Amino acid sequence: MRKAWIVGTAVVGSGLAFVMLLVVGVYLVAGNLAGGVGGGVKTLAKGAVPAAYQDLVQKWGNLCSAINPALLAAQLYQESGFNPRAQSPAAAQGIAQFIPGTWAAHGIDGDGDGDRDVWDPKDAIPSAAKYDCTLASYVKDVAGNPTENMLASYNAGAYAVIKYGGVPPYEETRNYVRRITTLAESFAAPVGRVDPSEQAAGAINYAQKKLGTPYLWGGTGTAAQGGRFDCSGLTQAAYASVGIELPRVANDQYNAGPHPDRDELLPGDLVFFSDDLTNSRAIRHVGIYVGGGYMIDAPRTGAVIRFDPIDTPDYFGATRVTEDGAKALPTRV
After folding, report:
1. What is the C-alpha to C-alpha distance for residues 276 and 273, in angstroms, rounded to an integer?
2. Beta pairing, strands 270-273 & 285-291
3. Which residues contact 78 (CB under 8 A, 6 or more apart)?
């Protein structure tokens, strides 16, 4: 857990009234800012992809018009959580989770060292991009969105896309297309204003009611745990109280929506902290922003849920949680 930061008693004393205003005010903010700018070319958000793979994803994510770096990142995260040694019970291997037959047909020597190694991200990431573009070429004459048709081909096969003239009417396939395109938003640098979340005020209200509760490592607020939390347990419970199910750990919660800049933060945004500011997978602490440069968080063993400042050297970034973004997250990475 991150180091403790001392908050003056005057701040804490005035904080309760401050947060109560936010619980109402954030809804007004949501109404005033609705309809923010979206779309545009997808480039990677800061630190969203581990630094070791960022250049590869940025380069190969532009291989063809059906993909972009954020979409390629979303696929890699969905498949392996950026783990180059991942192996599934179905024998899918590496960071891109190729099965042996698909690798034999579509794996390429991405780094030009004379071999095709499914365990080497320098081969597997370019191969994933090349495979996507190959699938896109198979369905290039099919009506509809080329990216969605490519993703549907990835899940159900190009024949099914051609047969149905677009994304086939399979629930699994349609969910996969929706999940990856939504998840890509959490890996993309925003190109305009990020819309606020109407659930934010309820999450803040929940966290505010837990102020003063002792920290518990691994705590999720159960009765057996005395209603205590760790940092991500608190944020998970706060958003669960408004119907949004977040993953259990902080580094996966980072992918539950787009990432506003520091000067664009709104109450209810999740704020994250790390010793490695180039890698979202290294995030180790999270809190709920309440405005004025402060968050509510469960900081560490021996402390209580409290207000802490966010402007510290280990500040990583923020996520504006969305219901669709949370639903898009894989259940296991």
Report:
1. 9
2. antiparallel
3. 179, 180, 183, 330, 333
DSSP labels, 71-90: HHHHHHHHHHTT-TT-B-TT
pLDDT digits (tens, 9 = 90+) for 142-157: 999 999 999 999 999 9
User: What is d(CA 196, CA 186) in angstroms, rounded to the nearest whole number?
Assistant: 15
* Exposure string for 185-223, b = 16+ CB within 10 A, e = fewer: bbbbbbeeebbbbbbbbbbbbbbbebeebebbeebbbee
Residue entry with tokens 């180091």: 3
Closest CA to 27 of 205, 239, 190: 205
Phi, psi torsion values for 219, nearest 5 degrees = -75, 135
C-alpha separations of 194 from 13, 189, 312 in Å: 31, 10, 23
Residue located via tokens 């192996």:
87
pTM for this prediction: 0.86
Sign of the Cα pseudo-torsion (143, 149, 152, 154, in order): positive
286, 297 contact by CB (below 8 A)? yes
Provide long-range contacts, Cβ within 8 A and 24+ apart, for 11-20: 11/294, 11/307, 12/306, 12/307, 15/211, 15/290, 15/294, 15/307, 16/208, 16/211, 18/290, 18/291, 18/292, 19/204, 19/205, 19/208, 19/290, 19/296, 20/208
Helical (H) or strand (E) element with 286: strand 285-291
Nearest Cα to Cα of residue 289 among 8, 19, 3: 19
Burial of 330 (0-12, 13-18, 19+ CB in 10 A): middle
Whole-angstrom distance, CA of residue 89 vs CA of residue 87: 7
**Residue 138 CB-density burial (10 A; 0-12 exposed, 13-18 middle, 19+ buried):** middle
Rounded-to-integer distance, Cα 293 and Cα 165, Å:
51
List, for residues 156-215, the tens digit of each pLDDT value.
999 999 999 999 999 999 999 999 999 999 999 988 888 888 899 999 999 999 999 999
